[in-house]
Amino acid sequence: MFREYSAFFNKQYRDQPDGGFLITLQKAFLKALRDGYADKQLPNHIFYADDCFVVYRNLGFLKDPDFQEALAAAEVDSVLLGRVWRIWLLAWSMQCRWRSEGLLLDCGTYNGRAFQVALHYSKTRLGYRKDAIVACDLFEDPPDEARKKDHGPDLREKVAKQLGQYGQVQVIQGALPQSLMHAVGSPITWCQIDLNSALADSETFRYVLPKLADGAMVIFDDYGFSRYEETQMELDEIVSKLTNSRIMELPTGQGLYVHRR
Ligand SMILES: C[S@@+](CC[C@H](N)C(=O)[O-])C[C@H]1O[C@@H](n2cnc3c(N)ncnc32)[C@H](O)[C@@H]1O
Known about the structure:
Shape: globular
Helix content: 25-40%
Number of helices: 10
Strand order of the largest sheet: 5-4-3-6-7-9-8
CATH topology of the domain at 82-258: Rossmann fold
Order of helices and strands: HHEEHHHHEHEHEEHEHEE
Bound molecules: S-adenosylmethionine
Distance between the termini: 41 Å
Largest sheet: 7 strands, mixed
Number of strands: 9
CATH architecture of the domain at 82-258: 3-Layer(aba) Sandwich
CATH superfamily of the domain at 82-258: Vaccinia Virus protein VP39
Strand content: 15-25%
CATH class of the domain at 82-258: Alpha Beta
């Protein structure tokens, strides 16, 4: 059922010259597809969300009851369901690292819903985690590029309450990467960076990189989007200068980096 959500929330649909044209085309395409099947529903092998259209796939993650429960627990809305594959990568990668020592660090937590899905999924499957979970954001007065409807003076507290059930959670309000000085514990075993800014993303990664555990995973939410081409260039430069590795660009628009010491 989740595959029916094809939210056009990418800002480029609104501010690029071809945005309106692409929306019209994609809506017509979806309608033609639905009309082409006898029951007017997309079949189970088709996925059309996260600005990705794929066919003849198993899409096993959509059928995972723990993932479905996590989406429900975090009360995700249709905008988040429109990027459900991205959220699945967060949940999957976090549960890979849940039992390893070190911090789980979310840089750009916003209202905490996406992070909560990953935490709920991992905790349901693997139980209590003793090491710290850190959520960082400005929470109010963000730069225009990163502004969303829930930003405001109460957001930090709301997020702290919402995430508190998942273990030893620290919610840090302030500008990254400087605010990370207040993060308690190390090394970092899992990290997401999602700040919608090449400078903030790359400076945060520069801070995080030397603190990563062997096998740590870092998910860059903005890495593959053409809007954030500069972000990809900056991150690639850091990785090529300081490691022997490469960031994996995923069809969802995310980048996945696996750290080897
Ligand atoms: C795209 S939103 C994050 C969305 C969130 N990860 C999710 O999946 O729902 C980007 C967030 O980065 C925050 N942000 C932007 N620049 C920042 C900075 N320098 N320091 C801390 N937070 C920042 C904004 O306040 C905003 O909440």
